Model the fold of this input.
Amino acid sequence: MATQQKQLTIACHTHDTLELSELTPFQNRLKNRSSRQIKQLADTIVEHGFTCPLFVWQSEGENKIIDGNSRYLALQNLATSGFVIPAIPVVLIDAVDEQEAKRKVLEVHNLNGVITKDALIEYGKGLDIDYTAITIPGCDMQLDLPNFNDVANNTVSQVSASTDIQGTAPTITSGTPPATIYRTVMCPHCDTSMQIRIK
Done:
């Protein structure tokens, strides 16, 4: 019995496309990426399709990725997991030499401006977004975001509080105990801390 190949959806369109095997990473180790981050991105691509083209500089017979290296790594991950990767939409970027191409890499990744948690909450109102899958440097995306309590409650219901969740026990000072007590716990799967109401 033949194994059915998994198909990947391309959800953006450009004038040019390239096969995954025709692409060459150009950023090297400019950005740190964990295998977990690449897996999360791969999962997002499977769920929503490949939605943003790669920016590519053509030089010396190679198609060097100016922007989109994480997506490229996620696509490689999916290819090794049995997905058929169709031709990838690319935008061709002009550069006269490697120095200019590297400058363009830095321009693309230049952090002009900061995304704050409040701005992201406002922008994401009405959307069903898994904020725990978003990484924004300098912004703690783990607490107080829409649907986080649903995520926390689901996580806690899946693990045993007695053995799998490590947390800080509530402290009660002298006097009348508070009507509501919260406990800070750490998810054993993703190291996310959260407040859980225990009373």
